[in-house]
Amino acid sequence: MKQVIPYIGRFAPSPTGPLHMGSLVAAMASYLDARAHQGQWLVRIEDLDFDRNVAAADQQILATLQRCGMQWDGEVCWQSQRQHYYQAALEQLGTHVYPCACSRKEIADSRLRMGEAASQIYPGTCRHGIAAGKTPRAWRLRVPDGAASVFTWQDRLCGMQQQDLAKETGDFVLKRADGFWAYQLAVVVDDAAQGITHIVRGADLLDSTARQWYLQQLLGVPHPVYLHVPVVNNPDGEKLSKQTGALAFDRGDNDLLHEALLPAAAYLGLSLPAGIATIPEFWLSAIKAWQTRYP
Ligand SMILES: [Zn+2]
User: Fold this and answer.
1) 50 CA from centroid of ligand 1 (Å)
2) CA gap 204, 129 in Å, rounded
3) Where are the alpha helices (DSSP H) in 93-142?
4) What is the pLDDT of residues 103-112, one digit of tens each?
5) For residue 63, how far is its CA from the centre of ligand 1 (angstroms)?
6) How far is CA 234 from the centre of its chain?
7) Given this model, what pLDDT does residue 118 score?
8) Nearest-angstrom CA–CA distance, 212 and 234
9) Nearest to 232 by CA among 62, 24, 70
10) Residue 203 zone, left/alpha/beta (φ > 0; ψ -120 to 50; rest)
11) pTM of the full predicted structure?
12) Sign of the CA dihedral running 121, 127, 132, 138
């Protein structure tokens, strides 16, 4: 008998608009992997960027998932209701965290001095305290120095990954200058709280994994297993998103099987038998195809 491994996965959309094909591919990948492992599939609404949230987009996303035949397990969770947990984690991190008084412009100016390669890196200005007369704006996590800043993990599809946080991100933000919680902290706290064992998401998040891995280590929570699937690009080669003109595929009464599910499965490289006629039939075949393609 095949051994069943404990599996809790999740899909974590931001309610910045209706689901588009890019987000459907990510949702489908996480759903199929959970079902292929006889695991649970949770949905979490990542609504911490109050400037980008679109009213009712969360309900629209949930309705589209259901129209696509993707039923989640348990209760949906909203990050906006969990902010006290992020505060508690920030406090738990103690002296690993420090206030930063730099404005966007000051960081950009020091990056210019560091050259093009350093464009994503925080220069460490406030590491040893804030200059007199300045007020704290954001909270940053100190990354380790030297060899300890190199993190290595295994991705199920992309293989062995390595990132040097000191060289590639620098001390990163956990609470933003606008008062919003940063994605990196919230996602680690919630994955741990929900007991997520497997993360399946778009490859655009591959380079966030080392930061999350380090936070998991500091907070003493388990590292999930990672699988990053290719992201859908528009014809200009940009990641499909609302900003790059991705359209909602669910118009309420259209044929989601042929217009959305089958194209998304093809994008994931799943070979399905011809003649699938219903959404339940689609999922039965897609789970089998997923097991072959992403064992
Ligand atoms: Zn600073």
Assistant:
1) 23
2) 33
3) 104-114
4) 877 776 666 6
5) 42
6) 20
7) 47
8) 28
9) 24
10) alpha
11) 0.92
12) positive
Contact assessment for residue 57 and residue 293, using Cβ atoms and an 8 Å cutoff: no
Quote the ligand 1 centre to 168 CA distance (angstroms): 17
> Ligand 1 center to residue 190 CA distance, Å?
27
Q: Comparing C-alpha atoms, which of 15, 3, 36 is closest to residue 268? A: 36
Ligand 1: centre distance to CA 205 (Å): 25
φ, ψ for residue 174, nearest 5 deg: -105, -35
Distance from the alpha carbon of residue 125 to the mean position of ligand 1, in angstroms: 5
Q: Quick one: how far is CA 220 from the chain centroid?
A: 20
Using N-to-C axis directions, what is the helix angle for 279-293 and 21-36, rounded to 10°? 70
Whether the per-residue pLDDT at 147 is higher than 50: the answer is: yes
Pairing verdict, β 77-78 and 138-141: unpaired
Would you state the structure tokens that stand for residue 285, as one six-digit string? 């075949």
Amino acid at 77: C
Q: Which pair of tokens denotes residue 12?
A: 């974590």
